[in-house]
Design goal:
Number of helices: 14
Helix content: 25-40%
Strand order of the largest sheet: 2-1-5-4-3
Largest sheet: 5 strands, antiparallel
Radius of gyration: 37 Å
Number of strands: 17
Distance between the termini: 86 Å
Structural class: alpha+beta
């Protein structure tokens, strides 16, 4: 048998290293894959092991060298995990196993093998960190700690449950978690439990609602891990739940704001475009028609110039309310900036019905926006120029339809303002 080829094919790398009486280290054998694994040429190391030994992490090298020398002097087996820094800067965890001996002339000889342990060590560090986090959470007692079996039965519940959820709330210990969780969240909770217990895909933190003694449903986030049962015991989940009602409400508020115009609370342009694209796809599939209205306020700039932006902003808020009041629930309006607004009407089976509906809405908007506005004890009078484009008569894409409606609005301006003009695209 070709022992060299056999050794080179072993996982990790095999080696024999000696320390001469002079103190010089060199390898008498090292697997050819040392270059791939650790970044050093085997030819170099057979002459001088110093470069490889110098690559041991500075915090580990003294202990590794001292322990290995002692093992050889005592003719015993040696194992030591340590950190190693490759020439390219990458840090590895290595496990070294060898047997040492001391020859008559004082030469020390070690024969063994090295395997990479980076992944295992990281798991150990993660476990230590997880245990530390768990201990911190327990000591702080600000979170609810619990265990669940495969049937969803609560086997342990931290004492702070009553304080957090409410003194009059009975403990659901030894009951199903379904007795305290909102019905709409049960499916997600069950999937979360089964995935963890069955070693399924990585599961993100779970969010669910729990009824408090005040009668309100409060939001919680939960993180859990499977614990292997001992002997005849079944596996179970150990989890930590924390209330996030305020954070959840803030997140939902931010999500709404991200889709709303900050001043008027109408949908913003991004939200409008998303709805517009969806409406066009439905119209294309069903061969329906719809209209988009481009509204530009007349005489708005003089209001800003004469009374200031605060009055102008208040006027825009009143304008948005009137626009919304003129629309049906199926229509959608948005402010695209300044004193410009877009309106998307409900789809109709026929182009003619879409046109007549759009005209009726546009005239109602024009009429309402021409009425005086009471803003900070002022009576402000403006009007609106409105351009209308029809899908699919004038264009078939959202951008093209808006541009057609925009051009029609400018034509309304040229015709004296305070009027409605259909696109000529």
């Amino acid at each position: 048998m070709d022992w060299q080829r056999f050794l080179d094919k072993m996982p990790g790398l095999t080696y024999q290293i000696i320390r001469e009486p002079s103190g010089h280290f060199r390898f008498t054998h090292i697997s050819a894959n040392v270059e791939e694994m650790l970044g050093f040429s085997p030819q170099l190391l057979t002459e001088d092991a110093g470069p490889l030994l110098d690559a041991i992490h500075p915090e580990d090298v003294e202990e590794v060298i001292e322990a290995s020398i002692l093992s050889a002097q005592q003719h015993r087996e040696w194992h030591h995990p340590f950190r190693f820094i490759r020439p390219d800067g990458k840090q590895l965890w290595l496990d070294a196993y060898d047997s040492g001996e001391e020859l008559d002339d004082g030469t020390l000889v070690w024969t063994g093998y090295i395997v990479e342990a980076t992944h295992r060590k990281q798991l150990e560090l993660d476990l230590i960190a997880s245990e530390q986090r768990f201990q911190t959470l327990v000591k702080n007692a600000s979170d609810i700690i619990f265990t669940l079996d495969a049937n969803g039965t609560i086997g342990y519940l931290s004492p702070n449950w009553r304080r957090i959820v409410g003194d009059e709330q009975s403990d659901p210990l030894y009951q199903s978690y379904t007795t305290v969780v909102h019905q709409d969240d049960l499916a997600n909770c069950n999937a979360f439990i089964q995935s963890l217990l069955n070693d399924g895909p990585l599961v993100e933190d779970l969010e669910f609602r729990v009824r408090h003694n005040d009668g309100e449903w409060h939001w919680y986030t939960c993180r859990a891990a499977k614990v292997d049962g001992r002997e005849n015991d079944s596996d179970y989940l150990l989890g930590i739940a924390r209330e996030i009602t305020e954070q959840r409400e803030q997140r939902e508020k931010m999500a709404r704001l991200a889709r709303q115009d900050m001043l008027t609370n109408l949908p913003n342009r991004a939200s409008f475009d998303e709805a517009f694209e969806l409406a066009l796809r439905h119209c294309e599939q069903r061969q329906h028609a719809l209209a988009v209205l481009f509204i530009d306020l007349d005489k708005f700039k003089p209001v800003n110039d004469q009374y200031g932006h605060s009055v102008g902003d208040q006027l825009l808020i009143h304008v948005a309310r009137r626009i919304k009041a003129c629309l049906r629930d199926s229509d959608l309006a948005c402010r695209i900036g300044g004193d410009e607004f877009l309106v998307l009407t409900e789809a109709h089976p026929q182009v003619d019905s879409a046109k007549s509906t759009a005209l009726a809405i546009a005239e109602r908007l024009r009429d309402e926006l021409a009425k005086p506005f009471a803003v900070e004890h002022l009576q402000l009078e403006i009007s609106a120029s409105i351009g209308v484009a029809i899908y699919p008569t004038h264009a078939t894409g959202t951008g093209e339809l808006v541009r057609c409606a925009d051009r029609a609005m400018y034509e309304a301006k040229l015709q004296g303002r305070n009027c409605v003009v259909f696109s000529q695209c």
